Amino acid sequence: xxxxxxxVAVDWLRANNCKVLARNFKGRKGGEVDVVARDKDRxxxxxxxxxxxxxxxxxxxxxxxxxxxxxxxxxxxxLRRLGTREVPWRFDVIEVEVxxxxxxxxxxxxxxxxxxxxxxxx
Length: 122
Prior knowledge:
The protein is an alpha+beta fold and 122 residues long. The protein has one domain: Trna Endonuclease, Chain: A, domain 1 (3-Layer(aba) Sandwich), CATH 3.40.1350. Helix content is 26%, strand content 34%. The protein is built from two helices and five strands; from the N terminus they run αβββαββ. A five-stranded mixed beta sheet has the order 1-2-3-4-5, sandwiched between helices. The longest helix is centred in the middle third of the chain and has 18 residues, at 65-82. It starts with a helix and ends in a 13-residue tail after the last strand. Mean pLDDT is 89; it is low at 116-122.
């Protein structure tokens, strides 16, 4: 179900004028980001959470501190490879709600943990 949700999220980002730069990006120190995209001049480090319509927990609730740290390590690696931190960026979560026989619902939550301070050292 997760792969399907990521495909839905990528299609949604593209339909909303974002350029998808990478899927399932993995950093060398264990970080990972589901989707790295660009919205105009901003880099989006996006976690995708897919849930069934009858799920008791929102996808956003699953992005706990441990998961945030994993995404932050991946973002750090992306920025290191980019060679600059002078680009605007943020962390988003895209929730995909699936229900059999229906079009998935997509909800993007922007800047979900925006207080991240990237490391100064590479």
